[in-house]
């Protein structure tokens, strides 16, 4: 992975996971799951604005906004009974929000494989996080075109 392309907050999250033993990484993922922010009212009241991430087994919905300064704001919702999926969504919300659109588009597509969870969760779950990242990038491309 190109270190230059990885924004500091995503690199920090990756390093936090990699500093732990594999079995402890799931605990950190659970902590991220509990930190997923609630949707702002304007999105909670309009579920039609949210995009379903069909790559995820659980019903995950995302919305990405790019403000006038070109900064990305990501919002996501996932059920509490799906802590792995919520954790992945939370990692992306925390890791991508506040970055420039160009910085998010430069994040390597395989970032989900780099955080050390491939031994702890199923490949299907990692694919779900990869799908979330791909949809975020697609929404940014549409909004900045």
Automatic annotation (TrEMBL):
Q: Where is the Fe-S metabolism associated domain?
A: 17-139
Recorded hits in InterPro entries, A to Z, give: Fe-S_metab-assoc_dom
- UniProt cross-references to Pfam families, sorted A to Z: SufE
Assigned protein family: Belongs to the SufE family.
Which protein is depicted? Answer: Cysteine desulfuration protein SufE
Annotated organism of origin: Salinibacterium xinjiangense
């Amino acid at each position: 992975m190109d270190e230059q392309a990885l924004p500091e907050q995503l690199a920090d999250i990756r390093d936090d996971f990699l500093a732990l033993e594999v079995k402890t990484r799931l605990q950190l993922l659970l902590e991220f799951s509990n930190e997923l922010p609630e949707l702002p009212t304007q999105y909670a009241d309009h579920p039609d604005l949210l995009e379903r991430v069909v790559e995820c087994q659980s019903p995950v919905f995302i919305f990405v906004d790019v403000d006038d300064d070109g900064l990305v704001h990501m919002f996501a919702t996932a059920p509490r009974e799906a802590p792995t999926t919520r954790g992945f969504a939370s990692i992306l919300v925390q890791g991508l929000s506040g970055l420039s659109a160009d910085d998010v588009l430069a994040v390597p597509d395989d970032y989900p494989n780099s955080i050390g969870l491939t031994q702890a969760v199923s490949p299907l779950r990692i694919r779900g996080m990869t799908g979330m990242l791909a949809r975020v990038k697609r929404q940014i491309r549409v909004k900045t075109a």
